[in-house]
Amino acid sequence: SLSLSLSLSLSLSLSHSHSLPCSTNDTLSRVPDFRVARRAAFTTMAAFTLAEASRLANDGEIHLAILLVSHALREPHHASNTELLKKRASLYQRLELYQYALTDLTRAAMLDQCDAACYIARSQCYRSLGMDQRTLIEYATMLKLDPTRANTYYSRGLVRGGVCCSMLNAQCSMLSSTTTTADSLFLSVRM
Question: Is the pTM of this model over 0.85?
Answer without folding.
Answer: no
